[in-house]
Structures are given as C-alpha cells and as structure tokens.
Amino acid sequence: MPLLHVDDVVVQFGGVTAVNHANFEVEQGSITGLIGPNGAGKTTTFNVVTGLQTPTSGRVVFDDKDITRMPVHRRSRRGIGRTFQRLEAFGSLTVAENVRTAFDIHDGFAGLFRSVQNDVDDLLDLVGIANHADDRADSIPTGTARLLELARALACDPKLLLLDEPSSGLDESETEAFGELLQQLANEGRTILMVEHDMDLVMNVCDTIHVLDFGSVIADGTPAQVRANPVVQKAYLGYSDDGPAGDDTAVLPLVNEEVVL
Ligand SMILES: Nc1ncnc2c1ncn2[C@@H]1O[C@H](COP(=O)(O)OP(=O)(O)OP(=O)(O)O)[C@@H](O)[C@H]1O
C-alpha cells in the first residue's frame, strides 16, 4: 500500500492547465523524485498534496485516507511536512529558536508541559548545523538556511516530507552530505518526495522518479529506467537519442557533469 496516491489530479488556472490528470504513488520509506522541465507542474502538485491548492478534479489519498478537501493544518497533523523553494525561516530569531518554534506549534497545548531543548539540539545535530544554533537566521549562509528549513519540517515529525528544490544554494560537498542525510532519514522510516533540479542528487538518492511534462506524468521508474527513457529525453531536450541498446549513459546527456534541463 503506497503512503501517497495522487489520483488523476487536474489543476486549472483560468485557461492554463498546470496539472493534467497526474497520477503517481509514493511508497512508504522511499525517496521519490518528482522532476520535469520548468513549468511542468511540480510545485502546483506539491501544493495540491499539502493543501495549499485545491485541485479542479482528482483525489489525493494519504495513509489510506482521502485528504483532497482536508485543510493544511490537519494534513500537517496527519504527518505531511514540507519545505519551500523560497526560504521561510524567521530572520530575527536564532536558528535554535526557529526550530523550537516549530516544535511549539506542532506540540500545541501539550508543549506547555515539556522542554524541547534536547529535541532542538538533537535535530540541529542531525542536520549538521548545531554550530549555528545561536546565529540569527537572517545571518546564516543559504546552504545552512536550507538545512534549517529541513530541521523545522522534521520538528513536526512528518511521515511524508516534501522537499521543494532542497539543494538549491548548497555547494557540491554540502549537496553530497545532504544526499546522505536524506538516505539516513529514509532508513529511519521517513518517506521523502522531492522536487529537485540537481540531477546528480536525484539520480544518486531516489528509489523512484516520476517525470512531469505539461502537467502529466510521462514516465516513472528507477533512476536508470528514467535516464534511459527516450520520452523523458525528448521532454527535456526536444529530441530523443536512443543510443546503443542497453546503454543508459547514452541518454540525458551531461554538460559539465550536469544534466541539461
Ligand atoms: N497561481 C497561478 N496562476 C496562474 N498560473 C499558474 C499559477 N501557478 C502556476 N501557474 C502556471 O502553472 C504551470 C505550472 O507551474 P509550476 O510552478 O507548478 O511548475 P514547476 O514545474 O514547479 O516549475 P519550476 O520548475 O519553474 O518551479 C506554469 O505554466 C505556471 O505558469
């Protein structure tokens, strides 16, 4: 049984069809990539899953329950967490205070009766930014701020974590460490759905990838299957190069070791 099922979802903005009968599933404990060219509908799909966007039609089923009409805060309580493309931390609070605030909001009334200091410290350690605990959030580098966003999302103990372009602003070694952290989270039982343009990261950490183009899922599969799929190549590059049979390195050509998107 998948943890998430996006079932025939359509989102229209006036004459623009942002999501067009999208169908895909996310397996429990997996790292799943949602990729596609600019404007393919990835962020709109995230908004449908988290409740920021009501679909024109279709359903979202999470943990065996239809959540299509459920408000955002109830989805969060049921275990859906998210980070945003744009950084959302409170700039005038310290890094630790930002995480503490996330715990406080999640815990609500029950939080009045427990200290979250150890949990905050543990989370900052987990994502590797404990040395920035007392820095103001508006003074930290972008890469650190991305990790702070992740820590704030984890403070709500999500079963399903949606990450929107999490590696943006990270350098190569930070991205590599981030990939290892995602694998650690998945090994501990979190399920991760990620929109990401860094194809090295996607190909290295995802178990499954769904490819969106013009709002529709045009391919699903393992990283190797997706790389080898001529339909995906055509969507990204405008042409398909089948290459030698069985040679999955012949597709999604690399320029300066990055896939051309
Ligand atoms: N609120 C809106 N009103 C009108 N059109 C919108 C709105 N939000 C998104 N769109 C359009 O819907 C389409 C899908 O946008 P979306 O942001 O979901 O794509 P994306 O795959 O996340 O793109 P990117 O990779 O550039 O972030 C685009 O054509 C976009 O212009």
Automatic annotation (TrEMBL):
<dbReference type="InterPro" id="IPR003593">
    <property type="entry name" value="AAA+_ATPase"/>
</dbReference>
<dbReference type="GO" id="GO:0016887">
    <property type="term" value="F:ATP hydrolysis activity"/>
</dbReference>
<dbReference type="Pfam" id="PF00005">
    <property type="entry name" value="ABC_tran"/>
</dbReference>
<dbReference type="InterPro" id="IPR051120">
    <property type="entry name" value="ABC_AA/LPS_Transport"/>
</dbReference>
<feature type="domain" description="ABC transporter">
    <location>
        <begin position="4"/>
        <end position="239"/>
    </location>
</feature>
<protein>
    <submittedName>
        <fullName>ABC transporter ATP-binding protein</fullName>
    </submittedName>
</protein>
<keyword id="KW-0547">Nucleotide-binding</keyword>
<dbReference type="InterPro" id="IPR003439">
    <property type="entry name" value="ABC_transporter-like_ATP-bd"/>
</dbReference>
<dbReference type="InterPro" id="IPR032823">
    <property type="entry name" value="BCA_ABC_TP_C"/>
</dbReference>
<dbReference type="GO" id="GO:0005886">
    <property type="term" value="C:plasma membrane"/>
</dbReference>
<keyword id="KW-0813">Transport</keyword>
<dbReference type="Pfam" id="PF12399">
    <property type="entry name" value="BCA_ABC_TP_C"/>
</dbReference>
<dbReference type="InterPro" id="IPR027417">
    <property type="entry name" value="P-loop_NTPase"/>
</dbReference>
<keyword id="KW-0067">ATP-binding</keyword>
<dbReference type="GO" id="GO:0005524">
    <property type="term" value="F:ATP binding"/>
</dbReference>
